[in-house]
Amino acid sequence: MARNAQFRKVVSPKKLAGEISVPGDKSISHRALILNSLARGTGRIINLSPAKDCLSTIRCLRALGVKVIWESKEVPSVIVNGRGDSYLSEPADVLNAGNSGTTIRLLSGVLAGQPFLSVITGDSSLRSRPMGRIVQPLRLMGAEIIGRGGDSYAPLAIKGRKLHGIQYHLPIPSAQVKSAILLAGLAARGETTIEQSLPSRDHSERLLQRMGAKIVFDSRHIHLLPPTSPLNSIDIKVPGDISSAAYWLIAGAIHPDARIKINCCGINPFRTGIIDALRAMGARIRCENEQMEGNEPVADLVVESSQLRGIELGGEIIPRLIDEVPLLAVAACVAEGVTVIREAAELRAKESDRIANTVKELSRLGAKIDELPDGMIIRGGTVLHGAEVYSHRDHRLAMSLAIAGLVAKGETTIHNAGVTDISYPGFWEVIQKISIFS
């Protein structure tokens, strides 16, 4: 595999095999950093995700007066000194969330209840992503927020105010919006109630519960009362990221000679849609050594070469695998029969238009794939051929194309491949580790 900051070349190995660990879960890492910053005491976060997105959260928290100290960078771990008995500090400059939608949306919920002015922005990609979905509920809670494009895009200027709880129905399943409301609810008067027609990942609820918040939740409803005393800081070992593990699950399932084991991976039921979908397609995946780690279920995952078949996906499973849809399209290219993915229009508002760009780039490899307004149709069973493809500066698309390259005939060149560091530093090294050519 050729190395270059701007492109990577991938060829299909004879065999894929190995035992690996994936970085700490990015979603949990963001939340552990932010909630420990708001809590009383000192919290240690072990196996923190080293992704650039999480580094953006650390940078913003430090600008808000939070002490985040690196304890180790080999097995990434930090110590967070919480500000639970006092407010955060007014930042002296604009907060920069980089490419991280989680950072800007969750911190907006925090900043809405802080007694100062803050401005938060991000890179060109983040400034094109919709922020009206958090502005609306935060305003209903009493927040004062303005932004570009009719208050729909970053930069966002937030003047902290006294907030009050609301009853809010989530119009789309979004853990980021839900978490922003809950973080604002910690500083609000009265109860905050959220109703979701489709469930989304519940990492915020689990962490809040563990830190002593007055929260009751199930898959449809969340009830939060503001704490009468600060949250308690916690030590946490972050499970491996299922979204990162998904690349190796699909690589193992679609390659004709493969067996890969992924150690200590999070299997939160609102994140394992990719496992359920792959099993429905006939993938040979099993969970071993299941246990709880920090209020989150974890297991070792083993995948072997499989004969996949096309399926139809839509409805409740989509929020549980929304980040993995471009990758799932790669599996569908190899599977026998037709795969239809619907009700995934949210993908058009990610780091890139992941529906249009997945279709465009997999077509370059010879895939028979068509775009739908809210998804795609993939006619599987075709042989993929190496070609020049483009990441569109989208980390998940870059990695999905790399996995396609592992089964394509010839050489696949992925342009702007370094963008993978946004969520998965070390991705290319793992490909080298598990690829056997002799």
Low-pLDDT ranges: none
Specify the CATH class of the largest domain: Alpha Beta
Distance between the termini: 15 Å
Number of strands: 26
Strand order of the largest sheet: 18-19-17-2-26
Which keywords apply here?
single chain, 438 residues, alpha/beta, UDP-n-acetylglucosamine1-carboxyvinyl-transferase, Chain, 2 domains, five-stranded mixed β-sheet, four-stranded mixed β-sheet, 26 strands, 29% helix
Briefly characterize the structure.
The protein is α/β, with parallel strands linked by helices and about 450 residues long. It is about 30% helix and about 30% strand.
Topology:
Blueprint: E1 7-11, E2 15-21, H1 26-38, E3 42-46, H2 52-63, E4 67-72, E5 77-81, E6 95-96, H3 101-111, E7 117-121, H4 132-140, E8 144-147, H5 148-151, E9 153-159, E10 163-164, E11 167-170, H6 175-185, E12 188-189, E13 192-196, H7 203-210, E14 214-217, E15 221-225, E16 236-237, H8 242-254, E17 258-266, H9 273-280, E18 284-293, E19 296-304, E20 312-313, H10 325-334, E21 338-341, H11 354-364, E22 368-372, E23 375-379, E24 388-390, H12 395-405, E25 411-415, H13 427-434, E26 435-436
Parallel strand pairs: 2-17, 3-16, 6-7, 10-12, 11-13, 20-21, 24-25
Antiparallel strand pairs: 1-25, 2-26, 3-5, 4-5, 7-9, 8-9, 13-15, 14-15, 17-19, 18-19, 21-23, 22-23
Helix pairs in contact: 1-2, 1-3, 1-7, 2-3, 3-6, 4-6, 8-10, 8-12, 10-12
